[in-house]
Every structure is written in C-alpha cells, then in structure tokens.
Amino acid sequence: MTFHVLISDPLSEEGIYPLRQADDINIVMETNLSEAELAQRIDGFDALLVRSQTQVTRELIEKASNLKIIGRAGVGVDNIDLEAATEHGIIVVNAPDGNTNSAAEHTMAMLMGMARKIPQAYNSLKQGKWDRKAYVGVELKNKTLGVVGFGRIGQEVAARAKGQRMNIIAYDPFLTAEKAEKLGVDFGTVEDVLKAADFVTVHTPLLKETKHLINAEAFKVMKDGVQIINCARGGIIDESALYDAVKSGKVAGAALDVFEQEPMVDFRLLELPEIIATPHLGASTFEAQESVAVDVSQDVVSFVKHGTVRNS
Ligand code: NAD
Ligand code: MLT
Q1: How confident is residue 310, by pLDDT bands cut at 50, 70 and 90?
Q2: Is residue 280 annotated as a catalytic residue, yes or no?
Q3: Among 67, 138, 250, 302, which one has the highest count of C-beta atoms within 10 angstroms of its own C-beta?
Q4: pLDDT tens-digit profile of 22-63?
C-alpha cells in the first residue's frame, strides 16, 4: 500500500533522499499553502513534514483522518499541537540535534555583530557615509555571557564564547554543580544569571513557563547597558518590554533571529538602531537543512518499514 507524505515547508532535496529511495512512498511537496488550503489538502496523507512555518493546529489534525506521523525538520515543536496529535494517536518526531551547530554559530555571529555594530556600520557605509565615531563597540573578552537554557545549543554557544575569553554563567533546571564544573561554567538561578551578565542569550524551548521569561521585571534585574540575544524562539523575550528597555537605555543592544509573530508583521522593534535582526536564519545552512531533513525522512521510512521511529 502506498504511504502518502505531504511536505508543506521547504525541505532540503538531498535531505529527503531516504524518502525518494523508499518503495511505496509517494511524496507531495506543496510549500505555499495557506492554512485554509492546507486544511483542505491534508486528508488522505499518512505523514506531514514541516519546518517552523506550517502551524499544525488541532483543527488541521482533526481534518487529517489518515495522518499517522508528523515530522518536524528542526528542534522546536511549538508549531504543532502535541496534545491534539497525541489524542489522535499521531506520532510527532523532530530532529533534535541536526541544526545545533548552525544555531550556535548563528548565535555567535549575532553576538559579535551586535557587540561591534557591524550591521549598523555596514548600512551607514552603504549609504555613502564614512562614520567611524558612531560605531564604537565593546570587546567580548572578560565579559560575562549569561546563558538561559543550557541544552544542546546553549552548551555549544558557551563553548564557543569561552574561545572568545568570555566568562559563562548558565541557568537550566537540569544543570547540576557537577556538570557545570565539568563544562567550566558558573551556574545559578535565572536571577543570578541576569544580574551577572553583560550579555544574555536565551536557548530554552517556548513553553508556558518560558513565555516572556525575559520581561520588564527581568530587565530591571539586569546590568545597565546589557545586551540580549534571542536565537531560540520568539516569545521568550517580551518584545514590548524589550522595546521599552532599549528606549530607556537599560538595554544597549539586542540581536534577534526569532519573533513573537512570524513572518514578522510589526517592524517597530527594528526602528531602534540598537536592535539587529535576521529572519529566523539560525538553522539556515545547507548542512543543517540536509541533516534535519534526513533525520525526519529516515523516521518516516522506519515507521513505514518497521512501525517504529528513532526518537519515539
Ligand atoms: P534543548 O532541548 O537541547 O535545550 C533546551 C534547554 O532548555 C533544556 O536543557 C531545558 O532543560 C532548558 N529549559 C527548559 N525550560 C527552561 C526554563 N524554564 N528555564 C531555563 N531553561 C529551561 O534544545 P536546543 O536544541 O538547545 O534548542 C533551544 C532552542 O533553540 C529551542 O527553542 C529551539 O526551537 C531553538 N532553535 C532555534 C533555531 C533557529 O533557527 N533560530 C534553530 C535551532 C533551535
Ligand atoms: C528549530 O527549532 O529547529 C528552528 O526553528 C529551526 C528551523 O526550523 O528553522
């Protein structure tokens, strides 16, 4: 019997090779469907493969009477209604480490670009100005990087920042003194991290508990002139509180790859020259995209052949 797979966000062609090779798997790639179009299209498919753009809502799941497996080619599953999927007996798989390296590298690029005001200076130069005074930055060496969320990406960022001679202080509910010592980082509560840091980078999933973890109260605890990075999920930082904190001078810089609403519709934050941004590019490398697509494709093939998946 043929197993029908719908791919509704762009996935690497090399990455879906395991699916193309398998017998009896029919792949349909339709990556520009609106929510309503996808809802009309989904029935009859056995698998749905997405990145972060497709919202796999309860309404969509209820229309997908054949759906057995949802593959998220990436880490965050906050675009999938997990409760509804479970209720309908649908397996959800992700690619937990295929883009770790790329996301960590992007975080470092954002940290360094922000500290040295590279995007702002580039924009000024492109406008034909030779302004060296406006773009004086700060060094990373001997500064403290506060890492909130010390999982795969948080740890990779810390390792790289140590190479920049930064001190690291981290918070994660699963971080123990023993592990912190082994990794050569300090650790404490969220408040300890926010108080100590010259730069704060967040690497948690977006959950009820982490929604607006960095809010107006959190900004008050931080050092004056702190700089913030979010290459994890929009919504971990309260954007409206960030706007006020930058406006007031409390926050000297912010580097954002992810936003509360994506695609972004409200560009108010970007009116502030202290804020640099990229449109959710943390995992956008050839290597990461191939790797995450291979992971979820192999899961689908394994499910079709053996009824099991790697991370179920
Ligand atoms: P991970 O699961 O390895 O690590 C997340 C860590 O957050 C875990 O160690 C967990 O214990 C911790 N955590 C959970 N709740 C917390 C809380 N309340 N306070 C502090 N820590 C908490 O995940 P990861 O692969 O490191 O990914 C981290 C984030 O980065 C996710 O949100 C993921 O979706 C996002 N991400 C973004 C991009 C991008 O393109 N910008 C790319 C990859 C991953
Ligand atoms: C992720 O959670 O893996 C990221 O959002 C990367 C992505 O899919 O673009």
Answers
A1: confident
A2: yes
A3: 67
A4: 999 999 999 999 999 999 999 999 999 999 999 999 999 999
291 pLDDT higher than 70: yes
- pLDDT recorded at residue 311: 58
Q: Which of 108, 192, 200, 204 to mutate to test the pocket of ligand 1 (most atoms within 8 A of CB)?
A: 204
For residue 3, give the nearest of 290, 297, 310, 312 by alpha carbon.
Answer: 297
Would you call 106 a catalytic residue per the annotation?
A: no
Among the listed residues 4, 62, 105, 262, the single catalytic one is: 262
Distance, CA 45 to ligand 1 centroid (Å)? Answer: 30
> In the annotation, is 4 catalytic?
no
Mutate which of 75, 102, 213 for ligand 1? The one with the most ligand atoms within 8 Å of its CB, which is 75
Give 123's pLDDT tier (boundaries 50, 70, 90).
Answer: very high
Q: How confident is the model at residue 207 (pLDDT cuts 50, 70, 90)?
A: very high
In ligand 1, the atom with minimum distance to the C-alpha of 153 is 26
